[in-house]
Amino acid sequence: MKRKAKISLALGIIISITAFYFAFRNVPLNELLNYLSSINYFWLFPSVFVVFISFALRTFRWMIILEPACKISFWKAFHPMMIGFMLNCILPGRVGEVARPAILQKKENVPFSTGLATVVAERVFDSSIIIILFAVILASIDIDPQLSISFGEYNLNRETLVTISGNLFKLMIILIGGIILFSFSSIRQILKRTINKIPSLFSLKSVSLKNKIQKFCTSLICFVDNLSTGFSFIKYPQKICICIGLSFIIWGLSAFSFYIMALGCPGIRLSYLELFVVMIIICFFIALPSVPGFWGIWEAGGVFALSLFGIPAKEAAGFTLANHAIQIFPVIIAGVISAMLTGVNTLQILKERRNI
Fold first, then answer.
1. Entry pTM
2. Do the domain assignments include residue 218?
3. Left (φ > 0), alpha (ψ -120 to 50) or beta: where does 353 sit?
4. Adjacent-strand bridge partners of 157
5. d(CA 294, CA 315)
6. Torsion angle in degrees (nearest 10) through CA of 303, 122, 256, 129
7. What is the largest CA-CA distance in the chain?
8. For residue 338, what are the domain limits?
9. What residues contact residue 140 under an 8 Å CB cut-off, 6+ apart?
């Protein structure tokens, strides 16, 4: 494991342990265990079913994004996706985002940078939809504006959530603007001409150094071309509209799986929109570094979000912990099955990409 990965894992462990402490500090272990035993786990099955419907729709969306570069079948897209999500749950550094295009390169001969661009495009859709929905739903539900919850030296309240949402929205606008600019061939040509001029800056240096720089610039230009192929779906407004529609449905189903699970959890009597907010706040929390599987920060995000709606600590901690397990373990199992069916040696692929 590389030094960078070790540092990331160490930081994640520290953050996760701290988050676990703040999430469960007010909940005695025996009370938490009693609550977990009181949950009606019958609701686990429809909740997991809805989760996998959302993953099926994610697969269709990825196929649409990939189509200009490579047309692949549903299962050839589904298996790499599930393997990627599985790796995010069991390995540090979110290496699953790298594994998916690496598997696509190995199985379908799609350039790695092209596959990576499509994964980035997916994340842009997801982040944009989450931020938009969060801003809309937050304005339509009732949260006490005076409510303030302490996490160490930080106070989190409705105003904090609105500020975070606004800042993230600005970042998304900048990112989307950059991707749109990158899709124009004239912009890419300017970028490639600039890269081509770099070796001339080293004309007085040694020949070997200049050759190395020339080789690097050639590879960089190839990367730019492959990256642009991954974003080429932007040229098709119909595909963008379909992806936007699928993104809304995907996140709507994800929130619905939370709502279904809440039906079997005593004390969690929240509306669908309120649980939508809970899910989105958890998504914000799990953007932080953590141990594999987002343990700790998921629970801290869930307990904080549920407390905004007056849910006591015991019920909030119990529901969040149980729902986390239900959301993550089926994905791990599905990812392992996908790896077995495709014969993919995920660790070897990651080593080849020099990311672990």
1. 0.81
2. no
3. alpha
4. 148
5. 20
6. 80
7. 75
8. 3-183+231-352
9. 273
Distances (CA, A) of 329 to 67, 138, 175, 241: 30, 30, 32, 32
List CB contacts of 172: < 8 A, sequence separation 6 or more: 124, 127, 128, 131
Closest listed residue to residue 124, CA positions, set 182, 61, 168, 176: 176
The answer to the question of residue 195 being in a domain is: no
Taken as a whole, the chain contains a residue count of 356
* Owner of token pair 């015991």: 314
The CA distances from residue 306 to 126, 286, 311, 316, in Å, are: 22, 16, 5, 6
The domain total for the chain is 1
pLDDT tens for residues 292-349?
888 888 998 898 889 888 898 899 999 999 999 999 999 999 999 999 998 877 777 7
Instruction: Say which residue, 117 or 149, is predicted with more confidence.
Output: 117
Percent of the chain with pLDDT over 90: 31
Cα end-to-end distance, the chain, whole Å: 5
Q: What is the pLDDT of residue 266?
A: 94
Neighbours of 288 (CB within 10 A): 16
Q: To which residue do tokens 């642009």 refer?
A: 228
Q: What is the pLDDT of residues 14-30, one digit of tens each?
A: 777 877 777 788 788 89
At residue 216, the pLDDT reads: 76
**What pairs with residue 156 in β-bridges?**
149
Question: C-alpha distances in angstroms, 287 versus 21, 97, 258, 338?
Answer: 19, 13, 19, 25
Residue at 325: amino acid letter = A
**Residue 152 is assigned to a structural domain of this protein:** yes
| C-alpha to C-alpha distance for 73 and 66, rounded to whole angstroms | 11
Q: How far apart are CA 64 and CA 61, in angstroms?
A: 5
Secondary structure (DSSP) of 140-186: HS---TT-EEEETTEEEEHHHHHHHHHHHHHHHHHHHHHHHHHTSHH
Helix (H) or strand (E) holding 41: none
CA–CA distance, 230 with 183 (Å, rounded to integer): 10
3-state secondary structure of 220: helix
Q: Does a structural domain hold residue 303?
A: yes
Q: Please name the residue that has the structure tokens 């342990």.
A: 17
